Give the backbone structure.
Amino acid sequence: MSVFEGKHILLGVTGSIAAYKAADIASKLTQAGAEVDVVLTEHARRFITEITFRAITRRPVLIDLFDEPEERQIAHIHLAKRADVLLIAPATANILAKLAYGIADDLLTTLALATQAKLVIAPAMNTVMWQHPAIQENVRILEERGARFVYPVEGMLACGDVGAGKLADTPTILQAVEEVLNPPLRGVRVLVTAGPTEEPIDAVRHISNPSSGKMGYAIAEEAVRQGAEVTLVTGPTLLEPPAGAKTVCVRTAEQMLDACLQMYDQADVVIATAAVSDYRPAEVWQGKRKKGEQEWTIRLVPNPDILRTLGARKGKHILVGFAAETEELLQNAQTKLREKNLDLIVANDVSQEGSGFRTDTNRVTLLWADGSQQALPLMSKREVARHLLEAIRQKLLAR
Ligand code: PMT
């Protein structure tokens, strides 16, 4: 039976030249057994008429907030309560801004606030608009709130420009809706490490590194959205704990090891993105050491290797490491994969522009223990998370 059978999908169509493609989406969803209620914005009606959608879905098409097709029901509340998914395709820059800031000035935006259904958004717009920091910020806000985005793809746009902005194709959009209805990682327990560790020198100084936690938090958030039971063990970061994950905050490598060992038996998959300090000061100065004229020599001792410790007692776990490298990327990553007894390592060239520490994007290569590899282009850390989790899901399925 199709996952769409008997499901109620609200399809919001906004004013883009790609609005005609929403007819195909409505048709495929209806054929797959879903009950599809189409909501058109005023701008969408300039591109496509309600007659098309009425014919495809055999249901009334909704436009006006004050329309009440069924007398005893307030339409937007009734629809909002019934919906399993609110899919907005195509989504314009305008609707993204309204959704991000909770503006409700028509039926679609009011429904979006009134519903608890999962939100799937497939934007379409000019490349420069899509790349505008205001739009990207709105996408980030909505993703953090749990919306599932189907990113626009590269191609020739209606305006004649070539670049990212084209509405994703119907199968990709339907797959996203399917994943939201039937989360691919449901029942899988994922332990993620993230951020830096801090190794105290005295009461106010420490050894650390520039990890912001963005990569690990993106994985934790994406895993939650895909239905996994997620524990995030994090060093100090400025990020909000991901909604839906159990977050354990630690400071030092030793504390991170303790937390991971405690959680290990309750995890199926471990993904270690944390930039763990390999060394710590042998002695921690009590209080703040006063400034003086003499040299200060700090003796460093090695920290435990968390992933190697977990790898030594691997059992049925799937163990995934990250390798932050500045040279000999693949060889060094492969050595870590072998020495730490991992299933997969994500080779991360941290010397590349837009890649590694603190950035919102990353460029990585996935290396499996069986020798297979997948090089990914520069993409958002969220997209890296999606590719990585899909690769892990395939591994789990193959077991
Ligand atoms: O946090 P961001 O600003 O988003 O940056 C992301 C990142 C660059 C930190 C991330 O993408 C990344 O590459 N993480 C790995 C950082 C690292 O410490 O790499 P490594 O090559 O030193 O370690 C290899 C693996 O062993 C890692 O999975 C690490 O978590 C683990 N390790 C390392 C040392 C140690 N003592 N214990 C460990 O478990």
User: Anything to note?
Assistant: Residues 193, 195, 211-215, 253, 272-276, 278, 303, 305-307, 321-324, 336, 348, 350, 356-358 surround PMT (CB under 6 Å).
